[in-house]
Specification:
- By secondary structure, this protein is mainly alpha-helical.
- Helix content is 42%, strand content 8%.
- The chain has a domain of 89 residues: Rossmann fold, CATH 3.40.50.1390.
- It has a three-stranded mixed sheet with strand order 1-2-3, with helices on one face.
Length: 130
């Protein structure tokens, strides 16, 4: 008897997006699901993850994440998935805003930002004393 489970190992080196392999190789039909150990192992960005889960749903394939205990085959699981996605996007925007505020404060304080300039070629000193 053939096992209904198929296991694929995906990494960023052998498959750009593990979801592409999941979408192509998963069987279609009732109760078909793709299972991942954690959401961050499936897609590189939040937008990729949302798009992938939508594509899986349109193809009739469920999605489950073991670490987050998400199951998008039921309405409650889809709700939790989208709440997680919204929170992740909100936190990302807060981080970006805080970074910009910190950079503005450093500029206002007169700090030099960015990579240090290299030593001029005319000086024959070690890089540590430039």
């Amino acid at each position: 008897m053939r096992s209904p489970f198929i296991q694929y190992r995906c990494t960023s080196t052998n498959v750009h997006n593990g979801g592409e392999l999941l979408l192509c190789s998963a069987p279609r039909g009732r109760r078909a699901s793709g299972v991942v150990p954690a959401l961050d192992r499936l897609a590189r960005s939040l937008q990729d993850l949302i798009t992938l889960v939508g594509d899986l749903r349109r193809a009739g394939i469920g999605f489950r994440s073991l670490h987050e205990a998400l199951d998008t085959t039921i309405p409650g699981g889809r709700l939790v998935f989208h709440v997680f996605a919204a929170l992740a996007e909100f936190i990302r925007e807060l981080i970006v805003e805080g970074t910009h505020e910190g950079l503005d404060a450093a500029r206002a304080a007169g700090k030099r930002l960015g990579r240090p300039r290299p030593c001029p070629p005319s000086r024959s000193v070690t890089p540590a004393t430039c």
